[in-house]
């Protein structure tokens, strides 16, 4: 723990109660620790070309696997006419998921985040470059994070944050900032995926056969849900994608690559 008035000298190393872990980017197979002892994960996404609910589902799986409460923070609401449509789409992913719409440059719009920024509470930020994480940090703290303009053509931002940093929030909490993530590959995350796709798991439990492949089998809960519209095809396909990534992690080739890094 770091105490600013003592020169930020480490006093002791805390045991890990929660830890955010992802697979290293690219073709590398080792895991990479993002942050530890986090209470709440702010999944920051802007209401522009960056908006992607499938990516939010990936972040949710990451949070649930770590036992961390996720909060989706939608930024740049000042640049759109109706933020409620974005909020409604995200809330459809989880019935109790907290979604906050903010203008990072307007401190008054951040009041809804106040009860999460209190003393003894640790928050970590994750999200792509250019979504306004640095601007949001500047508004929540006395920090002066560098910011950069976002490309109008593709909505992609520059990596203004290149390393993890810790900040004291104005209300006494602690904030961990992370560099922009353009490629989030999940580590061992089977339980987190099931929690993020709890509706999908419910439909799978309705299949007649335990080994149902959800293709040609009779009385398949997934096929019935897709046909009735109870389950969105995009959501089902994203679940399959994340589930298949987990299966790949259990192959001998993958384990061999991991062992070389350990």
Structure description:
- The protein is 31% helix and 17% strand.
- By secondary structure, it is of the alpha/beta class.
- The protein folds into two domains: 4-186, P-loop containing nucleotide triphosphate hydrolases (Rossmann fold, 3-Layer(aba) Sandwich); 190-261, Ribonucleotide Reductase Protein R1, domain 1.
- Strand 7 (165-168) and strand 8 (174-177) form a beta hairpin.
- Mean pLDDT is 82; it is low at 146-152, 154-161 and 258-262.
Shape: globular
Top-tier CATH class of the largest domain: Alpha Beta
What is the strand tally? 9
Fourth CATH level, the homologous superfamily of the largest domain? P-loop containing nucleotide triphosphate hydrolases
The multimeric state of the shown protein is: single chain
Count up the domains: 2
Report the mean per-residue pLDDT as an integer. Answer: 82
CATH topology tier name of the largest domain: Rossmann fold
Instruction: Give the structural class.
Output: alpha/beta
Order of helices and strands: EEEHEHEEHEEEHHHHH
Strand order of the largest sheet: 5-4-3-6-8-7
For the largest beta-sheet, the strand count, sense and barrel status come to: 6 strands, mixed
- Please tally the helical runs, counting DSSP H or I stretches of 4 or more residues: 8
First-to-last CA distance: 27 Å
As a whole number of angstroms, the C-alpha radius of gyration is 20 Å
Strand content: 15-25%
């Amino acid at each position: 723990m770091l105490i600013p008035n003592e020169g930020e000298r480490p006093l002791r190393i805390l045991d890990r109660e929660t830890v955010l872990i992802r697979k290293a980017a690219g073709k590398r197979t080792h895991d990479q620790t993002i942050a530890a002892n986090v209470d709440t994960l702010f999944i920051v996404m802007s209401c522009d070309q960056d908006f992607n609910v499938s990516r939010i589902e990936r972040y949710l799986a990451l949070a649930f696997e770590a036992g961390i409460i996720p909060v989706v923070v939608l930024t740049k609401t000042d640049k759109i006419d109706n933020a409620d449509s974005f909020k409604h789409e995200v809330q459809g992913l989880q019935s109790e998921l907290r979604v906050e719409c903010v203008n990072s440059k307007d401190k008054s719009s951040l009041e809804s985040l106040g009860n999460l920024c209190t003393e003894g509470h640790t928050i970590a930020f994750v999200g792509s470059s250019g979504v306004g994480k640095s601007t949001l940090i500047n508004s929540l703290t006395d920090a002066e994070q560098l910011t950069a303009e976002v490309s109008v053509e593709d909505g992609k931002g520059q990596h203004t944050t290149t390393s993890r940093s810790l900040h004291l929030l104005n209300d006494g909490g602690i904030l961990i900032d992370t560099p922009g993530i353009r490629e989030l590959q999940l580590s061992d995350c089977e339980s987190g995926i099931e929690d993020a796709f709890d509706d999908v798991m419910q439909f799978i439990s309705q299949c007649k056969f335990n080994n149902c492949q959800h293709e040609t089998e009779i009385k398949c809960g997934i096929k019935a849900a897709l046909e009735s519209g109870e389950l969105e095809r995009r959501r089902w396909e994203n679940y399959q994608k994340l589930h298949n990534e987990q299966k790949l992690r259990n192959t001998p080739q993958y384990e061999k690559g991991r062992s070389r890094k350990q």
